[in-house]
Amino acid sequence: MTQKPSSLLPLIEAFSFTAFVAWYIWQLQEASKYSWIVFPFWLIVSFALNKDTPQSLGWRADNFWSATKRASAVFLPCALAIAITGRFIGGAHHTFSHVLLPKRFFGYMTFCLLQQVGLNSLVTNRLLAALRNPLRVSLLVGALFALLHWPNPVLVPLTGVGGALMAWLFTKERNILPLTVWQTILGTLIWWAFPIAWHHSMRVGPGFYHFHPQ
Questions:
Q1: Each residue of 163-207: pLDDT tens digit?
Q2: Sequence-ordered list of residues with C-beta below 8 angstroms from that of 83, at least 6 positions apart, any chain
Q3: Roughly what angle, to the nearest 10 degrees, separates helices 155-172 and 177-193?
Q4: For the chain, how big is the Rg over CA atoms in Å?
Q5: d(CA 20, CA 118)
């Protein structure tokens, strides 16, 4: 059976957006400092053309509590597992002090919010429109999210699992706010738990290779 054009277009957009993010990470951010403007333009145009609503995008408060409970049931055990791992591989020698500074912590949370908009409000939504299978979509989103964190040996596997779980939660309860909070918490824990020599201060793309510890 051939795929209907109405299903093919969102599939093309999901992969095209992911490909552009990869291009930006590996080349554009250094080659053209204003290339980031494409992201808000793409999102605004896409949301308008697809007639997305705050409810479909997960920008809502009416289901915040139920979405938070569902996300916490999934990610609290993940956070505990990362924390325990950190105790065994040297995380206890790191300090949280500078990452918990309000400016740094909320700056990172803003970055996570932007990731959730791209990952779930756009990519997961488009893949759902094309494939209509939440499990398959979640696994695919996890794989794409992991590839965007190449070649970081810590982040690639963890974002693969985390991206799949976040996409699955999004399909069950459309709300990116608790996902943003948990991504911020988990990312902070990962930075603490694993040696910087492994994750290069959470850098991806060329930045991973250019990292030099102080």
A1: 999 999 999 999 999 999 999 999 999 998 898 889 998 999 999
A2: 91, 189, 193
A3: 160
A4: 18
A5: 11
For the purposes of burial, counting CB atoms within 10 Å of the CB of 35, is it exposed (0-12), middle (13-18) or buried (19 or more)? middle
Close Cβ partners of 175 (under 8 Å, ≥ 6 residues apart): 58, 60, 63, 64, 67, 68
> What is the dihedral sign for C-alpha 182, 106, 175, 39?
negative
- The mean of the pLDDT values for the chain is 92
Residue (of 74, 127, 114, 105) closest to 189 by Cα position: 105
Q: Write the DSSP symbol of residue 201.
A: G
Nearest Cα to Cα of residue 134 among 146, 145, 125, 143: 125
The SS3 assignment for 18 reads helix
DSSP state of 200: G
CB atoms within 10 A of CB 12: 11
Cα separation, 185 vs 179, whole angstroms: 10
Q: How far apart are CA 192 and CA 84, in angstroms?
A: 11
For residues 182 and 52, what is the distance between their CA atoms, to the nearest angstrom? Answer: 24
pTM: predicted TM-score of the whole model, two decimal places? 0.92
